[in-house]
Design brief:
Elements (H helix, E strand, L loop, with lengths): L1 H21 L4 H9 L1 H8 L1 H14 L5 H11 L16 H7 L5 H17 L2 H16 L4 H7 L3 H4 L5 H15 L4 H15 L4 H16 L4 H17 L2 H16 L4 H9 L1 H8 L1 H16 L4 H8 L2 H6 L6 H17 L4 H8 L6 H21 L4 H9 L1 H8 L2 H15 L4 H18 L1 H15 L5 H18 L1 H7 L1 H6 L6 H33 L6 H14 L5 H16 L4 H26 L6 H13 L4 H8 L1
Helix pairs in contact: 1-2, 1-3, 2-5, 3-4, 4-6, 5-7, 6-7, 8-9, 8-11, 9-12, 11-13, 12-13, 12-14, 13-14, 13-15, 14-15, 14-16, 14-17, 15-18, 16-19, 17-18, 18-21, 19-22, 21-23, 22-24, 23-25, 24-26, 24-27, 26-27, 27-28, 27-29, 28-29, 29-30, 29-32, 30-32, 32-33, 33-35, 34-35
Length: about 625
C-alpha cells in the first residue's frame, strides 16, 4: 500500500513543481509553466482541473503581459481538458478577466479564445453563460472590456433566441455610439463580420444606420474602418438597396477630408466593385476611380494605381474597352509623368496588364508610347517594373516594337549603382532572353550577363551563375558550348581568385544542364586544373565541385581523373581543403555503391524493401574494399 502511495506522489511531483513555477518570481519560469498547462491539466484530471487549476489561474491574472498572452492562448484549447463542451463554461471567467486587461495583444488573444470556447457551447449554454459575459463586457466601466465585447457578437448572434438577438443588436448600437473612440473603432472593425450573421431586415433597420453613423465619425481612424464594413454590407444587399443605402456613404468616403480614409477606399476599390456589380460600377464607381487617380495625396494615387489592372479587368465585358479608352486611360496617361516616383512605380507594375484587354491596335496606338516613356524614366523601379511585365505585351503585339527601346533601359539597370536593382534585372533576364530571341540576346545582352559574373557584390555573382543555367535551359547545350562556356573557362586564368571561384560556381551549375559529353570534354579539365590553385578557398571549392558534377560523369572518368585529384586534395596542408576532399570522397563512394546496388537488386523486392535497403546502405560507412579501390 505504501509503495502505491509513493507511486502516486511521484507522479504528482512534476505537477507540483509546475504549479510552484506559476508562482515563481522569474517571469521565464512562469511563462514555461503556462506553456505546459495542458500537461498539468492531464495529470490532475478533468474534475481537479475544473475545481482547482482554473480557479487558481483566474486568481493569477495579474501578471506580465507575455505570461497573460500565453495563458489566453492556452485556454482556447482547454475545452477537452475540463471535460468537453458541457463544461466549457468553466473557461469563461479567466478569459473574461483576460479580455479586460490593458495590453491590446492579450485582449485580442483572449477574445479569440472566447470565440473558440463560445462556439463549443450548446445553444442553451450559450444563452446562460456566454451572453451574460458579453453583456458584462458591454457595460464595463473601462473601455478595454467594451472593445473586447465587439468581437463576440457574431459568434453569439446566430444561435440565440429572438429576444436575445434584439438585445445583442441594441448592445452593438450602444457600442457604435460609445463616447470612447477606441470602442467605436472596435465596433467599426467588427461591423462587417456582424452584418453577415444578422437577418436582412435587421441589417437594413439596425446595422446600416450604425454604418452611416460610423462613416461620419469625427475620428478618421473610425471612418476608415467603416470602409471595410461597406464591402461586406454591399455583398449582402440586393442591387437596388445598395444604390440608396450604401452608395451615398461610399461617395462620401471617396472624397473624405482625411487622406487615410481615401487611401482605404483605394485599397478596397476592387472588392467594392465586385460587391456592387457592373451597372453601379459604370455609373458611380468609374467617376470615383477617376477622382482617386488625381488625388492630391501621392499615397492615395499610388494605392489606386496598383488597382488599375484589376479594376479594368472586372468591368462589364461589353463596355470594357470603351470605358478604359474614354474614362481610365486619360488619367493613367497623367500618372505616367507623376512627380512622385512611388506612384509611377506602382502604375508601371500593372499598366502592361491593360494590353490583353485592349488588343493589338489599341496597345500599339495608345499604350506603347506610355511604355516607351516609362522605359526612359529616371527612377530604376519604374523601368524594372515595365521590364518585369513584358510578357503581357509580348503575347499581344510581340516584343520587337519595344526591343530597341528596351536595350538602353536594360543596360542602365544592369549597371545601376544599387546592387538590388542589378539583382532584380538578372532575375528577369531568362524571361527576357526567351522573348527577345537568341540572336538579339547574343548581339546585345550576352556581354551584360558575362559582366555580372565579375560584379564586386557576391549576391550578384551568385545570381549570375544561376542565370547562366537558366539561359542554357532556354537556348540549349549546343548554344552554351559555342557561346558562353569558352568565356567562362577564361575566368579560370584570372588573377583575382574570386573570379576563379565564380568560374567553379558556373561549372557546378552548367554540369546539370549540359550533359555528360560537354561536362567531360569542356568543364572537367578546367576543374582539375584549378585543383593546383595557390589559394586554398579555390582548392576546397574544387573538391565540392567534383562531388557535385560526379553524377554527370562516367565511372571510368571518375576512376581515372576525379579520384586521383581528390586523393591529392585529401593530403593538402590546408585543413578545410582536406575536410571537403574527404567529404567528396565519401559521397562519391556511397553514390557508386548505390549505383551497383541498383543494378544487382533483385527485381522481386517491393519498393518499401528497396527503399529500406537503400537507406541502410547510404547510412553505412564505405567498405574497406571501396576505400582500397579509391586509393588505387
Amino acid at each position: 500500500m505504501a509503495s502505491s502511495d509513493k507511486t502516486i506522489d511521484d507522479s504528482l511531483y512534476p505537477i507540483a513543481v509546475l504549479i510552484d513555477e506559476l508562482k515563481n518570481e522569474d517571469v521565464q519560469l512562469r511563462l514555461n509553466s503556462i506553456k505546459k498547462l495542458s500537461t498539468i491539466a492531464l495529470a490532475l484530471g478533468e474534475e481537479r482541473t475544473r475545481s482547482e487549476l482554473i480557479p487558481f489561474l483566474t486568481e493569477t491574472i495579474y501578471d506580465e503581459d507575455e505570461v497573460l498572452l500565453a495563458l489566453a492562448d492556452q485556454l482556447g484549447n482547454f475545452t477537452s481538458l475540463v471535460g468537453g463542451p458541457e463544461y466549457a463554461m468553466y473557461l469563461i471567467p479567466p478569459l473574461e478577466s483576460l479580455a479586460t486587461v490593458e495590453e491590446t495583444v492579450v485582449r485580442d488573444k483572449a477574445v479569440e479564445s472566447l470565440r473558440i470556447v463560445a462556439a463549443e457551447h450548446s445553444a442553451q449554454d450559450l444563452e446562460i453563460h456566454v451572453v451574460p459575459t458579453l453583456q458584462r463586457l458591454v457595460s464595463g466601466d473601462w473601455f478595454t472590456s467594451r472593445t473586447s465585447a465587439c468581437g463576440l457578437f457574431s459568434v453569439c448572434y446566430p444561435r440565440v433566441s429572438q429576444p436575445v438577438k434584439a438585445e445583442l443588436r441594441a448592445n452593438f448600437r450602444k457600442l457604435c455610439q460609445d463616447e470612447t473612440p477606441m470602442v467605436r473603432r472596435a465596433a467599426a472593425s467588427k461591423l462587417g463580420e456582424f452584418a453577415k450573421v444578422v437577418e436582412i431586415e435587421y441589417l437594413k433597420s439596425d446595422l446600416i444606420p450604425n454604418f452611416v453613423q460610423l462613416a461620419q465619425d469625427d475620428q478618421d481612424s473610425v471612418r476608415l474602418l467603416a470602409v471595410e464594413a461597406c464591402v461586406s454590407i454591399a455583398q449582402l444587399l440586393p442591387q437596388e438597396d445598395v444604390e440608396h443605402l450604401v452608395l451615398p456613404t461610399l461617395r462620401q468616403c471617396a472624397s473624405d477630408s482625411s487622406w487615410r480614409v481615401r487611401y482605404m477606399v483605394a485599397e478596397k476599390f476592387v472588392d467594392l466593385q465586385k460587391a456592387v456589380g457592373p451597372e453601379i460600377t459604370r455609373v458611380d464607381l468609374v467617376p470615383a476611380f477617376q477622382y482617386l487617380l488625381k488625388d492630391a495625396e501621392a499615397e492615395v494615387r499610388a494605392a489606386v494605381a496598383t488597382k488599375v489592372k484589376d479594376f479594368c479587368a472586372n468591368l462589364d465585358k461589353a463596355n470594357q474597352v470603351h470605358i478604359i479608352m474614354t474614362s481610365i486611360l486619360p488619367y493613367v496617361r497623367d500618372l505616367v509623368s507623376d512627380p512622385n516616383p512611388h506612384v509611377k512605380s506602382a502604375l508601371a507594375s500593372v499598366i502592361m496588364g491593360l494590353s490583353p484587354m485592349l488588343g493589338a491596335y489599341n496597345t500599339v496606338e495608345h499604350l506603347l508610347p506610355l511604355f516607351l516613356i516609362q522605359l526612359k524614366d529616371e527612377c530604376p523601379e519604374v523601368r524594372l517594373n515595365i521590364i518585369s511585365n513584358l510578357d503581357c505585351v509580348n503575347d499581344v503585339i510581340g516584343i520587337q516594337q519595344l526591343s530597341q527601346s528596351l536595350l538602353p533601359a536594360i543596360v542602365e539597370l544592369a549597371e545601376d549603382s544599387k546592387w538590388r536593382v542589378r539583382l532584380a534585372i538578372i532575375e528577369y533576364m531568362p524571361a527576357l532572353a526567351g522573348q527577345l530571341g537568341q540572336e538579339f540576346f547574343d548581339q546585345k545582352l550576352r556581354g551584360l550577363c558575362m559582366g555580372w559574373l565579375n560584379d564586386h557584390v557576391y549576391a550578384i555573382r551568385e545570381a549570375a551563375t544561376l542565370n547562366m543555367k537558366k539561359l542554357v535551359e532556354q537556348f540549349g547545350a549546343q548554344w552554351a558550348e559555342q557561346a558562353i562556356i569558352p568565356m567562362i573557362l577564361v575566368m579560370s586564368r584570372n588573377k583575382n581568385y574570386l573570379h576563379r571561384m565564380t568560374c567553379l560556381f558556373c561549372l557546378n551549375m552548367l554540369a546539370e544542364v549540359c550533359g555528360t559529353d560537354i561536362t567531360t570534354k569542356l568543364l572537367l579539365p578546367t576543374v582539375l586544373l584549378l585543383a593546383s590553385d595557390p589559394v586554398s578557398n579555390v582548392r576546397f571549392n574544387v573538391a565540392k565541385t567534383l562531388q557535385k558534377i560526379s553524377p554527370f560523369l562516367d565511372s571510368s572518368v571518375i576512376d581515372t581523373q576525379v579520384k586521383p585529384t581528390l586523393e591529392k586534395l585529401n593530403a593538402d596542408t590546408d585543413v578545410d581543403v582536406k575536410h571537403f576532399a574527404s567529404e567528396a570522397i565519401a559521397a562519391i563512394a556511397a553514390e557508386m555503391e548505390l549505383d551497383v546496388f541498383r543494378v544487382v537488386i533483385p527485381p522481386v523486392l517491393g519498393k518499401a524493401q528497396e527503399d529500406a535497403m537503400t537507406a541502410k546502405l547510404i547510412a553505412a560507412p564505405p567498405s574497406s574494399t571501396n576505400d582500397n579501390n579509391l586509393k588505387s
